[in-house]
Structures are given as structure tokens and as C-alpha cells.
């Protein structure tokens, strides 16, 4: 296989990586790029295949795990009171900077409004922005 054949293989494998996203095809494409450079000086096909196999294995088992750790992170699952942040709520009793009550997902919570915000009358839709102990900090608006 001529050097241009390895270059075509490298481009096709690297382009196909966009479909999979697991970095395997990209590592094989990297092996093909190294083999392209190697093929410019060596015409023996079996040596080219050997270089492709060795470099590809090194990239797949050496570089791929580091790339996956860096780019693919598990979704952060919010639980407990952290899951309440950003939740919609409804004011039950007037909420101001000193206190009040809101209903969040069917539960009644004590609540305070943000500082320098006007008092929120009952029935006002609010959003939870923080939880301090057992008190929700809310702001006006859904």
C-alpha cells in the first residue's frame, strides 16, 4: 500500500470517529498517520502493517483512557436539597427577607426572599435559588 493509501485510511477513520465518539477510530487513524510517514521511507507492506498495529495498540491502550477521562465525564446527579435548586415553587404566605412559606413539589417549606427584593404575596410563582438549612431562598419568577 502506498503512503497515500495510509493517508486516506487515516482521514476516513478519523472522520468516522465523529459517529462513534469513543476515540477508538481516532486512535486507529493516528496509527495510520504514523504509518503514512513510515511508508514514505519503507516500501515493505508487512513492515507498514506491523508499524500500524503497534502504534494503534499503543494509542488505544495508552492515550485513549486518558482522553476518555478528560472529555467524557459522567452526568452529575443532584440529590437531596441540591435537587431543589432551580425548582419552581408557589408562595403560600407572604415571603420577604425575614420569612414566609412556599410550596415546592407538594411540600411546604419555610422560605426567605432575596435581599432587596420586594415582598412576594401568596400565589406568586417563584424559583428556588438556594437552600439554607431547612429554609429555601426564592426569587420571583418561574
Summarize the structure in short.
The protein has helices at residues 3-20, 24-39, 45-71; strands at 88-96, 99-104, 107-113, 125-132, 135-140. With 142 residues, it is α+β, with helices and mostly antiparallel strands. It has two domains: 3-71, no CATH class; 80-140, OB fold (Dihydrolipoamide Acetyltransferase, E2P), CATH 2.40.50.140.
**Radius of gyration over alpha carbons?**
29 Å
The class by helix and strand makeup works out as alpha+beta
In whole angstroms, the N-to-C terminal distance is 63 Å
SS strand fraction? 25-35%
Arrangement of strands in the largest sheet: 1-2-3-5-4
Largest sheet: 5 strands, mixed, barrel
Structure description:
By secondary structure, this protein is of the alpha+beta class. The chain folds into two domains: 3-71, no CATH class; 80-140, OB fold (Dihydrolipoamide Acetyltransferase, E2P), CATH 2.40.50. The chain is built from three helices and five strands.
List keywords for this structure.
single chain; 142 residues; alpha+beta; OB fold (Dihydrolipoamide Acetyltransferase, E2P); 3 helices; 5 strands; rod-shaped
List the topology elements.
Elements (H helix, E strand, L loop, with lengths): L2 H18 L3 H16 L5 H27 L16 E9 L2 E6 L2 E7 L11 E8 L2 E6 L2
Parallel strand pairs: 3-5
Antiparallel strand pairs: 1-2, 1-4, 2-3, 4-5
Helix pairs in contact: 1-2, 2-3
